[in-house]
Amino acid sequence: MRPVSIIGAGKTPFGVFPDKSLRDLAAEAGSKCLKNGSASPVQVEAFYLGNFAGPAFVGQNHLAPYVGAALGLEGVPATRIEAACASSGSAFFHAWTAVASGAYDIVLVVGVEKMTSQPTARVTDILASAGEVDGEVRAGATFPSLFAMIARRHMHQFGTRREHLAAVAVKNHANGAKNPEAHMRRAITLEQALNGRMIADPLTLYDCSLVSDGAAAVLLGPTERAAEFSPRPIRVLGAAQASDRLALAEKEDITTFPAVRKAAGKAFQMAGVKPEEIDLAELHDCFTIAEIIAMEDLGFVPRGEGGPASAAGFSSLEGEKPINTSGGLKSKGHPVGATGVGQLCDLALQLRCEAGERQLARANLGLAQNLGGSGATCVVTILGR
Amino acid sequence: MTIFHCSGCGNNYAARPGCCRCGSQELRTREASGRGRVYSCTTLYASAEPFEKDLPFQIAIIELEEGARLTARIAGRAVGIGDGVILAEERDGVQFFSAA
After folding, report:
1. Cα(A38)–Cα(A57) distance, rounded to whole angstroms?
2. Contacts of A122 in chain B (CB under 8 A)
C-alpha cells in the first residue's frame, strides 16, 4: 500500500435548499473540490458516490453515472456506495483502497443527500430502513428510539445523566454558530436542551441531529503526486472500515460499538498514533449519546466517562480534545450520505488553518468517525498535514 | 412463542436466517416460554408514518429466558430496565409484551 493524500476538498453549505436537486448539490460540491485541487474532470480516473437513500428521497436510482456525467467525468468507473449514514465514509474508504493499492492515481469521492423535500414522518420512515426492517422496524422502532434505548442503558450502567447529553448539544450548537456553512447557526442553553420536546425518552429534539440537504467531496491521489495539485495536501495516515450485526437487539452490549473499536484500532495502528495524540475529531453525533459513546470507543476517555467529560468541557473548542468544531451533525446538519466526506472536509479546513472563527491553535492530527445505522458500519479516518 | 436454536453453537435467536455467532445455517425452531426481562426501553412521541396512530407507545429490547433478544412493543403499563415481562400477544409479526 502506498501513501495517499487528499489533494482537493469542497462542499456545499448544509441546510434546506428547495431550489437545488440532488444532482445540483453533488455537482456543486464535486466541482468546488476539483477547483480546490486544481484538477480537471479528465484527470479523474474513478468516481465513488456515497448516498444512502436517493431512490427513496428523490426517486432516482443509478446515481453514480447520473452525478458523474454532470461533473464531466466521461467513461470512468462510477460506483455508488450505500452504508446508511456511513455511505460516504465508506465511499471514501473504498476510493482510498483503490489509490493506495495503485489501481488508480486520481479518484473523486462525493457524498450527497437530498432529504428536505419529504415530510418528517416520511423521512423517519426512510431513515428507519437502515435498521432491520423485518424485526425492530416492524415493531415500530425509529432511529431516535434505538439511540434512546442505547442512552437509557448507558445511563443505567454508568450513571450518565440527561445533563451530560444536553452538554453535547450545547457545545455543538456553540460551534455550529461559528460555522458559516452550518444548517442551524444558533447557540442554545442547557435549559433549552433539557426542556426540548420529547422525541423518544430520554432524547429530546435537541439530542437529535438535523434533517438536511447537502453534499461534500474530496479528491484523492498518491502522496508523491500531491504537490502537482495542491499547495496544502492532507495526508491520509490511517483509514479503516468495520461492520457489526444490523439489529440493535442482537448486540451483546449496546453501550459500546464493536465496529467503532475495530475500525479505530486498525486506523490508529496504520497511522502509528495514539488516541491522546489526536488534536481534534469530527465524531458521528447523530444523537448526543452517540458522541459520548464514540469518545469512549475511540479511547479519548475511559468507558462510562464520556458524559461527565462532555459536561466538564473536555471536548469544547477550548478543551483538551475539541470534538465537532464544525458543529457536528447536530448543528452543522446531517445530510446522511454527505456526512462522512463532510467530516473530512471540515478536518481539512482545520488542518489547513482555514476554519475562521473556530480555528484551533493546534491542528496537526485529526480523526473522523462515521457511523452507519445503530453501529453496523463504522469508518475511522486519521488525517495529518 | 417460537424461537430459533442454532445446532452449530447452541445459541437462541428471536428471528434469524443464519447464526450471527458461528455462521451456521442450521437453525431449528423451538418453543420459548414467552418470559423475559427488559434490557432497555423507550417511549416514542414521534414515529415513522405507519405507527403515528399509536403514539405515544413504548418499545423495549427484551432478553428472553432462553437468551434470545428481540425488539418488541410493550402493552399496558410502562416498564423499566430489569422488569420481568411476558408475551401478551403477537399481531402482524410483532410481539407485544406486558409487565409480568
Report:
1. 33
2. 49
Tell me which chain A residue has its CA closest to the CA of residue B51.
Answer: A140
A337: nearest Cα among A2, A132, A109, A182? A109
Among chain A residues, CA nearest to B63: A249
* Domain match, A114 and A84 both: yes
Q: How many Å lie between the alpha carbon of A122 and the closest alpha carbon of chain B?
A: 6
Residue A177 CB: number of other CB atoms within 10 A? 17
Task: Enter the C-alpha cell of residue B25.
Answer: 445455517
Instruction: Determine the Cα–Cα distance for residues A189 and A345; give it in Å rounded to an integer.
Output: 28
My answer on whether A68 and A170 are in the same domain is no
Q: Which residues of A touch B97 (CB under 8 A)?
A: none
Residue owning grid cell 445523566: A161
B20 φ, ψ to 5°? -75, -10
Q: Are A7 and A342 in contact (CB under 8 A)?
A: no
- The string of pLDDT tens digits covering residues A153-167 is 999 999 999 999 999
* Residue A385 burial (C-beta neighbours within 10 Å; 0-12, 13-18, 19+): middle
pLDDT in tens, A203-243: 999 999 999 999 999 999 999 999 999 999 999 999 999 99
Please tell me the predicted confidence (pLDDT) of residue B16: 75
In this structure, are A98 and A204 located in the same domain? Answer: no
- Kindly tell me the burial class for residue A318, based on how many C-beta atoms sit within 10 Å of its own C-beta (0-12, 13-18, 19 or more): exposed
Instruction: List, by residue number, the catalytic residues of A.
Output: 85, 334
pLDDT of residue B48: 87
Structural domain containing residue A47: 4-119+212-234
CA neighbours closer than 13 Å in the CB half-sphere of residue A34: 21
pLDDT tier, A121 (very low <50, low <70, confident <90, very high otherwise) = confident
